[in-house]
């Protein structure tokens, strides 16, 4: 048996301090950590349970921003009436993720930190080579079965897809994550693998996700999250898009637009080239199509995941058509 | 052994055969009070955890167990270097066992994920952690990880699967219209909700095994042979099974390991096969490939079918997934040729998975028929009816019953097939392309003998006692209904005990043969029990009917009476009291007279020696079905959604339509998974099944399943079984995948010939 200690943190200060110790990991909803422990990827010596800390599960929306505590449950955020009206894409990204049972357990902080479903990452006994698990050991996915691997943001060290949905919507709408001592944008929070795929976020020792905030904006209010996959529920995205639109007063010229992609990149992927191509343009199917194609600049296929390069622009296009009233 | 307490559902008529009763054990299951094998409380149990190979092929040079043995709580590590003392067991057919040892932990690795060691510890957690520390030194050898591997070759021809009549090649060459196409199905898995595992306990040389089993008697025999103990010494207990779908019909290597460990340690051993290990501890459906050529006249009369199929097998056993199983029986054709090959690759030996053979076979021929229909410009329904087989062209025998025409026409009516527009891509709903397709299915009637005991207790309870099993298909319920009807008692008075190899013998719950077989035995025993009570009532001096002058009595609704209006009327309990009997026991079987000796009976319950195929006798006997599928395809994304299905079945008489409809729907749901989602992904570099978990091996969720309308068009078939039913469990899945593939073609104009139809194949 692998022994580990379990302590219940009474405050965030406690938790952050305890988490500094070697082998310590923070436990919240447990839906990712227990899963990773079972397949031999996570081997904590200490679990710091933060789920009993009071006041970390709030959801508040004012005229400036939504503020969501790290311990708010996915289902609670998804169903929150003001999140639904001010940030439909955020609500949908949560509702379309995982299963109802998982959404009832999993927290927002933990959701951001969920780790890849790369099967090579998750099978250490058979595939010892994984740069994400063991820096410098190699990448077993390259040359293997790659249908679900990333085409954007990859490196020769890692092609694992960032699996989450929520973070895609957050990146689209310039959300920030509160790490206790500092606040960073969600986009900057996640790191591309580069030559250090083991480092997935900028979170530093002694830091902990305290919550997120999402600025209110016309584009966020006028947004959608489209997730495409073979199975209609409980499957990660083959490709997904969070988009939001703001029109000029003429109701057809794009004043502001947000586009982010999921299921195709190593981290939540803001598609700024698509956005820039649309701002100031009249939203038409043609304009959307030519803009959406820009999202795949620099995409690299590894065999069976080539379809994602075709698929992702179509997902962006449909999402924009839907929000823009063209679909 | 478990006693099921039935509850009364609806009217008394529901309790008779044909009534729509809910499952007796349903409440136990949904409230969590049904005890599955691994939940069985066991004092002093040690826990075994399997260690599996991580290479596809090679020799194990050495095993280092020192680190594992040093871990707290670890009791033993079994490796290929341990001689567990097992002997080979005889096969399903009852052939004598080879006189050779059996090594459940082999020295030579034949596939990735093969069990090659086991760690036994005081707790499962201790064993799991120690299992990670067992290390192997391999001498790797070249491997072939799938039949797509260029080194896989063309495999071996299976001579007993060569079927020829007429001159198929010549007739094909002469045909005015020809199509030829190759269809593939990937490795598919059972993914039963309850993973495999067992608890094994020795008392001296007596062995009790709690293990989910589709065949308690057969498994008891094989364990007995492995461990060289008499059959009587082994008891398999399996009252509840969380789904089997063909995977739980025989003991497997992990079972041998757990039982050997229990013997060595002198204490009970519990072994749970993890979900990933379930993907390689026994075989799923083999990957298949088949090429079908059809020749027809211009007006659509089939002239020839040429079929060449192959399936993967392991490098140590030839198991054919018979791609030609349905091909010869679906249509009228005078010239036919079929061959099947097996291609050995480094995989666990494939096994039976719902609709074995018939399922991929029907996928091939039913896609090919629609391809022919489009080549002819003919409605696929019309083409099928035009080539309707009036008899079995393979055996030359008449059908016992074949309501496939009714399945096609009734199904078409319910579906609204006449509103179909023939051209592909001609039906739309917004940005969704809509398509309709048909797939016919069949499964043979396999007959087997069974035995059953009826015990009438002093309080009037009627016990049905059988070693057969219920894996969710409804055995408990239909046997209560059968006994209630035959005995003349309300079903609430019947108790059913199943799932124990010490109880009377039965057919395997496989090949859709159990229900037809065991209802026959229960019916026979219950009639005999009723006759016995009537005889005793007439002839026992203390009976209220003694001297009544009656020469027969009526048993109805739990009461015994004369045919006279003013005669005595007593309950069965009152009669038992009058007779001074604590219980009355009647045992009957459906074996032929020449098989009544004890040894022959044993052979019948523990092997397939007395099983009869569909054409043994005057008739050719099969269940039939026709599925009508509607799909919506989002062409931009390639996503396929099944939006509607109508399926019409001929399974003869239905013993309980509610449970039958559930089984049909279950089969259809599995078929939707097969068509659109399910595929074992194998890394070609090392043969690892990389999606060996239910997060990554996708089976349908509720959201993937539309309303499924099922229709029965069957008529009782008394040649098929004593009560007139034909098999229902397997046939439900057969024909679903082609109906969906055909609908996808109709929607998109794209013919996807390899399952599953995932989105990248359509964008």
Description:
The complex is a heterodimer of chains A (327) and B (763). Chain A has 327 residues and is an alpha+beta fold. Chain A folds into 2 domains: 5-49, Uridine Diphospho-n-acetylenolpyruvylglucosamine Reductase, domain 2, CATH 3.30.43; 59-113 and 162-323, CO dehydrogenase flavoprotein, C-terminal domain (Enolase-like, domain 1), CATH 3.30.390. In chain A, 28% of the residues lie in helices and 17% in strands. The longest helix of chain A has 17 residues, at 307-323. Chain A is globular, with a radius of gyration of 19 Å. Chain B is α+β, with helices and mostly antiparallel strands. Chain B has 3 domains: 12-34 and 447-606, Aldehyde oxidase/xanthine dehydrogenase, molybdopterin binding domain (Aldehyde Oxidoreductase, domain 4, 2-Layer Sandwich), CATH 3.30.365.10; 43-142 and 197-211 and 251-272, Aldehyde oxidase/xanthine dehydrogenase, a/b hammerhead (Aldehyde Oxidoreductase, domain 3, Alpha-Beta Complex); 288-445 and 615-761, 2-Layer Sandwich (Aldehyde Oxidoreductase, domain 4). Helix content of chain B is 23%, strand content 23%. Chain B has 16 helices and 28 strands. A 7-stranded mixed β-sheet of chain B has the order 3-5-1-13-10-11-12, sandwiched between helices. In chain B, strands 7, 8, 9, 14, 15 and 16 form a 6-stranded mixed β-sheet that branches. A 5-stranded mixed β-sheet of chain B has the order 17-18-26-27-28, with helices on both faces. In chain B, helix 8 runs parallel beside helix 16, helix 11 packs parallel to helix 12 (514-539) and helix 15 (657-676) crosses helix 16 (736-748). Chain B is globular, with a radius of gyration of 27 Å. The model of chain B is unreliable at 1-12 (pLDDT under 50). The interface between A and B is large, with 32 and 40 residues.
């Amino acid at each position: 048996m692998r022994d580990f200690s379990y302590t219940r943190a009474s405050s965030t200060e406690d938790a952050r301090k305890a988490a500094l110790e070697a082998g310590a990991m923070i436990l919240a909803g447990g839906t990712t950590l227990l899963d990773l422990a079972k397949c031999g990827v996570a081997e904590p010596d200490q679990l710091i349970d933060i789920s009993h800390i009071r006041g970390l599960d709030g959801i508040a929306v004012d005229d400036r921003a939504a503020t969501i505590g790290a311990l708010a449950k996915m289902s609670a955020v998804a169903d929150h009436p003001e999140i639904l009206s001010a940030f439909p894409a955020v609500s949908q990204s949560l509702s379309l993720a995982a299963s109802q049972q998982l959404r009832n357990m999993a927290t927002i902080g933990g959701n951001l930190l969920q780790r890849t479903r790369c099967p090579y990452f998750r099978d250490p006994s058979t595939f010892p080579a994984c740069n994400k698990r063991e820096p410098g050991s190699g990448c077993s996915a390259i040359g293997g079965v790659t249908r679900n691997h990333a085409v954007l943001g990859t490196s020769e060290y890692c092609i694992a897809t960032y699996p989450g949905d929520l973070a895609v919507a957050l990146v689209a709408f310039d959300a920030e994550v509160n790490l206790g001592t500092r606040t960073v944008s969600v986009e900057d929070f996640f790191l591309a693998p580069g030559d250090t795929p083991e480092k997935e976020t900028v979170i530093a020792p002694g830091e902990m996700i305290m919550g997120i905030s999402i600025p209110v904006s016309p584009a966020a209010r006028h947004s959608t999250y489209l997730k495409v996959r073979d199975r209609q529920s409980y499957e990660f995205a083959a490709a997904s898009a969070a988009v939001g639109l703001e029109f000029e007063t003429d109701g057809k010229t794009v004043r502001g637009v947000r586009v982010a992609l999921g299921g195709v990149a190593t981290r939540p992927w803001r598609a700024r080239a698509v956005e820039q191509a649309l701002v100031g343009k009249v939203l038409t199917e043609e304009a959307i199509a030519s803009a959406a194609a820009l999202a795949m600049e620099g995409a690299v296929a590894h065999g069976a995941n080539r379809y994602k390069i075709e698929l992702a622009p179509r997902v962006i296009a449909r999402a924009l058509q839907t929000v823009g009233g063209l679909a | 052994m478990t006693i099921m307490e039935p509850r009364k559902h609806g009217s008394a008529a529901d309790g008779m055969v044909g009534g729509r009763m809910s499952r007796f054990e349903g409440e136990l299951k949904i409230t969590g009070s049904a005890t599955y094998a691994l939940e069985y409380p066991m004092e002093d149990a040690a826990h075994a955890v399997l260690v599996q190979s991580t290479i596809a092929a090679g020799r194990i040079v050495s095993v280092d167990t020192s680190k594992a043995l040093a871990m707290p709580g670890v009791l033993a590590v079994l490796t290929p270097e341990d001689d567990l003392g097992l002997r080979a067991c005889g096969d399903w057919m009852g052939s004598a066992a080879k006189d050779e040892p059996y090594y459940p932990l082999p020295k030579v690795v034949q596939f990735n994920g093969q069990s090659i060691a086991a760690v036994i510890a005081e707790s499962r957690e201790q064993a799991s952690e120690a299992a990670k520390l067992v290390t192997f030194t391999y001498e790797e050898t070249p491997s072939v990880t799938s039949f797509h591997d260029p080194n896989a070759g063309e495999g071996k021809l299976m001579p007993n699967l060569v079927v020829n009549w007429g001159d198929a090649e010549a007739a094909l060459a002469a045909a005015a219209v020809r199509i030829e196409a190759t269809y593939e199905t990937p490795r598919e898995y059972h993914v039963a909700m309850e993973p495999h595992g067992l608890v094994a306990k020795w008392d001296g040389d007596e062995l009790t095994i709690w293990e989910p089993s589709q065949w308690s008697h057969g498994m008891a025999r094989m364990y007995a042979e492995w461990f060289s103990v008499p059959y009587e010494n082994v008891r398999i207990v399996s009252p509840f099974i969380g789904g089997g779908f063909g995977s739980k019909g025989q003991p497997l290597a992990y079972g041998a390991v757990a039982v050997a460990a229990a013997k060595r340690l002198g204490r009970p051993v519990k072994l749970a096969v993890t979900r990933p290990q379930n993907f390689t501890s026994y075989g799923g459906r083999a990957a298949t490939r088949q090429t079908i050529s059809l020749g027809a006249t211009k007006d659509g009369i089939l002239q020839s079918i040429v079929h060449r199929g192959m399936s993967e097998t392991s490098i140590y056993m030839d198991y054919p997934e018979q791609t030609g199983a349905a091909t010869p029986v679906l249509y009228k054709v005078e010239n036919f040729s079929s061959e099947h090959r097996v291609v050995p690759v480094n995989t666990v030996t494939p096994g039976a998975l719902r609709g074995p053979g018939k399922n991929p076979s029907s996928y091939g021929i039913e896609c090919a028929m629609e391809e022919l229909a489009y080549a002819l410009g003919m409605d696929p329904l019309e083409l099928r009816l035009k080539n309707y087989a009036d008899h079995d062209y393979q055996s030359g025998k008449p059908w016992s019953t074949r309501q496939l025409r009714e399945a096609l026409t009734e199904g078409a009516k319910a579906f609204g097939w006449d509103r179909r527009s023939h051209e592909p891509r001609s039906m739309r709903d917004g940005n969704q392309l809509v398509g309709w397709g048909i797939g016919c299915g069949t499964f043979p009637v396999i007959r087997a003998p069974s035995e059953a005991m009826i015990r009438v207790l002093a309080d009037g309870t009627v016990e049905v006692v059988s070693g057969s099993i219920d894996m969710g298909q409804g055995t408990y319920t239909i046997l209560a209904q059968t006994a209630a009807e035959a005995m003349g008692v309300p079903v609430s008075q019947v108790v059913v005990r199943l799932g124990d190899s010490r109880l009377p013998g039965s057919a395997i719950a496989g090949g859709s043969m159990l229900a037809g077989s065991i209802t026959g035995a229960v019916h026979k025993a219950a009639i005999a029990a009723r006759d016995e009570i009537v005889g005793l009532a007439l002839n026992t001096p203390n009976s209220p009917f003694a001297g009544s002058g009656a020469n027969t009595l009526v048993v109805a609704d739990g009461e015994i009476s004369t045919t006279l209006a003013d005669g005595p009327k007593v309950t069965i309990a009152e009669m038992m009291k009058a007779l001074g009997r604590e219980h009355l026991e009647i045992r009957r079987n459906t074996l032929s007279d020449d098989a009544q000796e004890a040894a022959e009976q044993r052979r019948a319950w523990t092997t397939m020696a007395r099983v009869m195929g569909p054409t043994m006798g005057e008739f050719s006997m099969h269940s039939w079905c026709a599925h009508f599928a509607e799909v919506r395809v989002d062409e931009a994304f390639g996503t396929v959604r099944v939006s509607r299905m109508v399926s019409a079945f001929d399974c003869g008489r239905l013993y309980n339509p509610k449970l039958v409809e559930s089984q049909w729907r279950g089969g259809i749901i599995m078929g939707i998974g097969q068509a659109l989602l399910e595929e074992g992904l194998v890394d070609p570099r090392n043969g690892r099944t990389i999606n060996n978990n239910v997060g990554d091996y996708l089976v349908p969720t509720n959201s993937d399943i539309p309303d499924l309308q099922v229709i029965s068009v069957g008529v009782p078939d008394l040649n098929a079984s004593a009560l007139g039913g034909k098999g229902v469990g397997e046939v439900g899945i057969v024909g679903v995948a082609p109906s969906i593939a055909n609908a996808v073609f109709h929607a998109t104009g794209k013919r996807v010939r390899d399952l599953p139809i995932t989105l990248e194949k359509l964008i």
